Amino acid sequence: MNKLLKKILKILLPIALGGFILYWVYQDFDFVHAKEVLLHGTNWWWMIFSLFFGIMSHVFRGWRWKQTLEPLGAYPKTSDCVDAIFVSYATNLILPRVGEVSRCGVLAKYDNVSFAKSLGTVVTERLIDTLSILLIAGLTFLAQMPVFLRFFEETGTKVPSLMHLVTSPWFYIVLFCVIGVIVLLYFLMRTLSFFEKVKGVVLNVWEGIMSLKNVKNIPLFFLYTLLIWVCYFYHFYITFYCFSFAEHLSFQAGLVMFVGGTFAVIVPTPNGAGPWHFAVITMMMLYGVNATDAGVFALIVHGIQTLLVIVLGIYGWLHLSLKNRAKG
């Protein structure tokens, strides 16, 4: 019963956290206006174009993953790697961060790839991605420092305004986000301690982590990494052209909001729901977009991008199942 309760809490707490933040952000929002923009004020050709980059970011990630598996003597089908990525992102909507484990399970099931070793390659990928976003964030911060400083001031995180934090609703949103990250780290540590109890698993994970040094084509690996992040950015940035109130925003503004949104999705909520909206809305307002339009943008863009994740996840699962049935 205790284990069942923990599983239920792992599902419900991220949803509750995201729902709470969304309620706080949108409690006085004009949803009728959002409906009008969705039906009559959205350029769907630009939206479809942005979705192409969302799909390709997953495809490039699948291709890159296959590269890191080959030094381990694992040669899964390229399509299975991509399908596993599709499934993993959809899984994250139900259990944040569990998708990384689920994609290893997919290859273990359909391609007989060692689960522990493939998990190690995922750790390597995440380390590379972390370094990538830190580099992007650092360069963006240096180029747009006044905007970030204004963001810190608006959200009550500027040092002189710390005395007034308790009167700011934004402070409590940030606080709950931090608590969510701490809870996520706790469960990750518990998972790691579990692996340490299983003989041989840690060594297999470490072998997977070290697989990067034996990748045959390192330049191609880093090209895939570059393309992944370029696709992530344009998946977001092109949506500016979908709305008349956002189409004037600059490339630099897109970078600032992209960085803010990327850090916001670290908070363990389904697809970053809540924290992502808070970050994007706040930063968009710094560029002169009014609060209502910024809220409409975040609501529609996040909703459609989440729908894409669901559709790709269903496709990946069906594709894997049908191929496996045909083989049988």
Describe the overall structure.
The protein has 328 residues and is mostly helical. It has one domain. The chain has 13 helices and no strands. Helix 3 packs antiparallel against helix 10, helix 4 (78-94) crosses helix 13 (291-327) and helix 11 (251-264) packs antiparallel against helix 12 (275-286).
Write the SSE topology.
Blueprint: H1 2-26, H2 31-40, H3 44-69, H4 78-94, H5 99-110, H6 115-143, H7 145-154, H8 169-196, H9 201-209, H10 218-237, H11 251-264, H12 275-286, H13 291-327
Task: List the defining traits of the structure above.
76% helix, 328 residues, 13 helices, mainly alpha
The number of strands is: 0
Largest sheet: none
The H/E string reads HHHHHHHHHHHHH
Shape: globular
Q: How many alpha or pi helices?
A: 13
Q: Give the overall average pLDDT.
A: 81
Uncertain segments: 157-167, 194-200
Helix percentage range: over 70%
Strand content: under 5%
Count of the separate structural domains: 1
CA-to-CA gap between the ends?
A: 37 Å
SS-derived structural category: mainly alpha
Question: Summed up, what is this model?
Answer:
The protein is built from 13 helices and no strands. It is mostly helical.
